[in-house]
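Hey,
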Amino acid sequence: MKETAIHQETVFSGRVLHVRVDKVELENGRQSTREICLHPGGVGVLPLTEDGQVVLVQQFRYAYGVDLWEIPAGKLEPGEDPANCGARELKEETGYTAEELIPLGCIYPSPGYVDERLYIYLAKGLSEGDATPDEGEFVNVKKIPFEDLLAQVMRDEIHDAKTVTAVLKTARLLEEGQHG
């Protein structure tokens, strides 16, 4: 299956995302419109301590109007390696550094209208340090047993997609005895 762009028009350019309206030709020869949010991508890191605790951050998410507990995450800079971004965001938001970042894959958070790619990592071999959040970034940090976090995911108490994905993939790795 394929759709071919006939015309593309940028209708908004912001600090984090750009919005484009595309006229496309469909497989059957008809035309349609696609509204696309262009996003530089991001990285999420599930920091797992030696004693089985996960380091989470709480942030107010304006789009939903609520505080969410999430894994540390952030936006990729142009040309930045996702692992380097993950290490940077982990340090900035929590103060922790990791000896090892284990790739858990790449997800498309909302492929119907956003081109964002989110790279997910499991961080092991953690060392504590001082957090240095970005200007205007306000986070609370806590540790929670991995099994408790997994239970919260399964009870639908954690709604952040990158966190849910990271928890479920990590659970599978631990279940299989990998990286445990």
